[in-house]
Amino acid sequence: MARYRGNLEAIKGLVRETEVHRDVYIDEEVFQLEMEHVFANTWAYVGHDSQVAKPGDYYGTTIGTQPILMVRHTDNTVKVLHNRCPHKGTRITTESCGNTGKFFRCPYHAWSFKTDGSLLAIPLKKGYENTGVEQSHAGRGMSPVKHVHNYRGFVFAKLNDVGPGFEEFFGDSLSSFDNMVDRSPAGRLEVAGGVLRYMHNCNWKMLVENQTDTCHPMVAHESSAGTAIEVWKNAPPGAKKPMAVEIYAPFMAPYEFFENMGIRVWPNGHGHTGVHHSIHSDYSAVPGYFEKMTEAHGEERAKAILGENRHNTVYFPNIMIKGPIQLVRVFKPIAANKTLVESWTFRLVDAPDMLLERTLMYNRLINAPTSVVGHDDLEMYERAQEGLHVDANQWVNLQRLYDPSEIPDTTAVTNGTTEWQMRNQFRAWSKFMTMSM
Amino acid sequence: MTAPTDQQLIDFVIRETRLIDQHRFEEWLDLFAEDGFYWMPLEWGQTDPRLTTSLMYEDKLLLKIRVERLKGNRTFSQKPKSRCHHVLQTPQVDSRNEALNEYVTWTPMHYVETRLDQQDLYAAWATHTLAVVDGALKIKLKRVDIVNCDAAFGNIQLFM
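^ Those are the sequences you sent over. The predicted structure of the assembly is below.
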């Protein structure tokens, strides 16, 4: 029996000021409603336009659980289409990415479509004469997603007509994307290195919350980062600290480090850790990079760009980006208890290769299914997914550094160990979940 | 040992996986040359470990961190511990270069990793690049190509 569908009050009751009901993580009906509302009323990340560099290039992905594709149209704009043939439903993309030429051709009955989705041709068309097919769903071609925005290469789409416009939805939070792109001397990024895909048996929101959870690294990652530090202590005196140890070690920084790094929250559920510094602040300089940046931007501007070392920026609902190392993680919901985590890496166009090398090393040490840091985290998520079935306490606490005068949907900078950003996400969750109910 | 026989190369590869299956990780680590690497590509037919992402590309220091971590008191993803099991085809000696001190073997295998009620099966090819160092065979590179290397996996916590 439906407990939540059609029951606005029950949905509203799931999120309280400082706690959320466990059903937001474990209930399949709530999950289904999230797909219909949260993921349809917000601007979801689709991909980067360098994945579809030339006309006809396409890339298939999902918004929530909806199959979509991104394609470079003949007029060089990026279109987002629902990924099915309007005729019988066959998925249009033959591979996850590729080039389709000037049109898509369905492999089942050879219906063809321009790369903006409009119907191009149907074989043996006379069989449809006087049938009124032009007025059918099929006759209109592949359905485009109307609301698409390309922000400095990052492509977002919104499935529903309701919900805020792009600028209103993101506001000042776009500064984290700006910093990532500005780190390229050419002002451009390219997807590079390959995507790491890691299956998690837990709810997608556990991963999102973890991104601004600054009280877990020194505890959960003692096993990995702590061991890395211990092993490195046996290195011969004077040995140069390897890149890998530079990447691991800051995870064991003390609470004060994370308190002082600061957290900034923005309206609509976005926010970031590392206002003042982050685990990425003290990486060794890469030879030749600063010179390139100075050449491109001037010294003062180059210093300002590279001095901004934000840690994790969360964009509601389901991505996190790391500007200083050009990484985007997408937490793709599959079921209430299943999430596919994709970790994408980018090349700073015109910057030394060593930056990409470090980014890829970070990605495989931290975000791979073979990563020990990943193992630490996934163990905690899976234990939570199991523990939340306890009936005696059905609430998850988000109270750390809560102040009853806390203003919802605002911009603020505060102590780096606050759970304000988690509260911010759930206030946004409530807003976008109920907006179209 | 000057130049190893084919049989010695084959025995080495078989013993290497046996040490993993028996959790004799420190002895296993000793099989690597000081500049040895363990590489698990992400891409089919991958040629570059540096500017293409891999599942693993680890030198002896990083492997040692893994081995130490597996023993750690606060390594919660290993409570309880994972177990693993290799089934190898007989390793094939692909090349012998005594002048360069480089011997390459190729070994198709099935690998099972298990923890709690979960058991995962992987099919892979292991390519060992071996050398004689101070009279003993050592691993310069162990490359593990998983058949579905680009699939979305859950945790892989031990060594293939």
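The mean pLDDT of chain A is 97. The longest helix of chain A spans residues 372-387.

Shout if you want it in another format.
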